[in-house]
Amino acid sequence: MLKTNMGNIVLELYPEKAPLTVDNFLKYVKKGQYNGTIFHRVIDNFMIQGGGFDKDMKQRPTGHTIQNEAKNGLKNERYTLAMARLPDPHSASAQFFINVNDNASLDYPGRDGWGYCVFGKVIQGMDVVDKIKAVPTADAGMYQNVPVAPVIIESANITK
Asked: Strand 143-147 vs strand 137-140: parallel, antiparallel, or unpaired?
């Protein structure tokens, strides 16, 4: 569960479809990596991205990158959870995003032959996701689409 300053988001993960990705995400949750981070990139009708920066836009250190598991049959549909990455398809580490629209262009194989790995979905708190996607954004230094008022992930916890 992601406890944010705008409400709670409960996630269901798919370890059978994306075992490396789910394991990686859960390691960061257990380490407390996401506690105090923000949704630093919010684009209405696209996605909300978090897990990498604190409210002062300082990037959190991350571990190793993981193999892209986007070829798992899951689609980047509204309210699904996926790994953010750089242009290198195997560059995902800690940052994730929640799709706020159906984003077929992000599905495997995508424009780069890989796509973005879906590894879960929101099962409670869709209203919170909808509130977050609608916040005002602006540029913050070299970053774009940053919420004017920080949307903070106060804590990330594993619930069964």
From this structure: antiparallel
Note if the bond before 109 is cis, omega within 30 degrees. Answer: yes
Specify which residues 42 forms β-bridges with: 48
**pTM (global) more than 0.90:** yes
In order of 64, 85, 137, the CA distances from 126 in angstroms are 31, 24, 20
Q: Is the C-alpha dihedral spanning 11, 13, 18, 24 positive or negative?
A: positive
For 104-148, write each residue's pLDDT tens digit: 999 999 888 999 999 999 999 999 999 999 999 999 999 999 999
Structural domain that includes position 77: 2-156
Q: What is the CATH number of the domain that holds 68?
A: 2.40.100.10
How many domains is the chain partitioned into structurally? Answer: 1
